[in-house]
UniProtKB/TrEMBL annotation:
GO terms for molecular function: phenylpyruvate tautomerase activity. One of its GO terms (cellular component) is extracellular space. It comes from Senna tora. Gene3D superfamilies: Macrophage Migration Inhibitory Factor. The lineage of its organism: Eukaryota, Viridiplantae, Streptophyta, Embryophyta, Tracheophyta. It comes from the Eukaryota. Pfam families: MIF. PANTHER family: D-DOPACHROME DECARBOXYLASE, LS1-LIKE PROTEIN. This is Macrophage migration inhibitory factor-like protein.
Length: 115
């Protein structure tokens, strides 16, 4: 189940976040290749964030998935999610950072075969 956790310094109090949830869910599902029913999105706003030495609109996100992560998938996620946040929250794509984690990737690739 992919889980996308987005943290931003943008105040979400008066913003309709439904489009963010639906667009990010569709994007993650499509790019990673997992059904929408397994995609979780968490969105947290008004978190103090300093990026490039200032507190202008920015976002940090983490995505965890069991498989489906390649270099091209990472590139597509960064571009697509950055675009969604820019469109919905006016966060410049240059002020968006995404950490990607594949739970099936072993830090010791040969360890499993030796067990």
């Amino acid at each position: 189940m992919p889980c996308l956790y987005i943290t931003t310094n943008v105040n979400l109090h008066e913003i309709d976040t439904d489009p963010i949830f639906s667009e990010t869910t569709s994007a993650v599902s499509s790019i990673i290749g997992k059904p929408k029913k397994f995609v979780m999105v968490v969105l947290k706003g008004s978190v103090p964030i300093s990026f490039e030495g200032n507190k202008e609109a920015a976002a940090y996100a983490e995505i965890v998935s069991m498989g489906g992560i390649t270099k091209q998938v990472k590139r597509n996620l960064i571009a697509t999610l950055g675009s969604i946040l820019h469109h919905n929250l006016s966060i410049p794509t240059s002020r968006f950072f995404l950490k990607v984690f594949d739970t099936t990737a072993s830090p010791f690739p040969n360890a499993i075969s030796k067990l």
